[in-house]
Amino acid sequence: MSQTQNKFALTLEVTQKAVSHRLKSSEMTDKQAVPVKKYLKTLDWEVLPHPLYSPDIVPSDYHLLRSMTHALSEQQFTSYEETTNWVDSWIALKDKEFFRLGM
User: Fold this and answer.
1) Where along the chain do its domains lie?
2) What InterPro entries does the record tag this protein with (predicted)?
C-alpha cells in the first residue's frame, strides 16, 4: 500500500484495507473496457491517454457533490459572497462520519 493510502486511512480513521478496497472497486475492469475500446475503434476516434487515477475526479467527490446538489436545489443566491458563505457553512455542518462515508 502506498504512503498516500496510509495517510488516507489515518486521516479518515478507517482501515488500510478499506481504502485499498474502495480504490480498487472504483477502477474500470478489463471486461468493461474491452467493448468500449472496440466501439471507439469503429468510430475512428483518437483516444487520448489519461491517468488511471485523477485527483480531480475521485469517487469521494461524487458523494460530496451529490449531497451538496440536493441541498442547493432549494437555494437562490444573489452574490458571490452569499454563495461562498453558504458553501462554508454547509461543509462546517457536516460531521466527520459524512466524509468518512464518502470514502
Assistant:
1) 1-51, 54-103
2) RNaseH_sf, Transposase-MT_Hybrid, WH-like_DNA-bd_sf
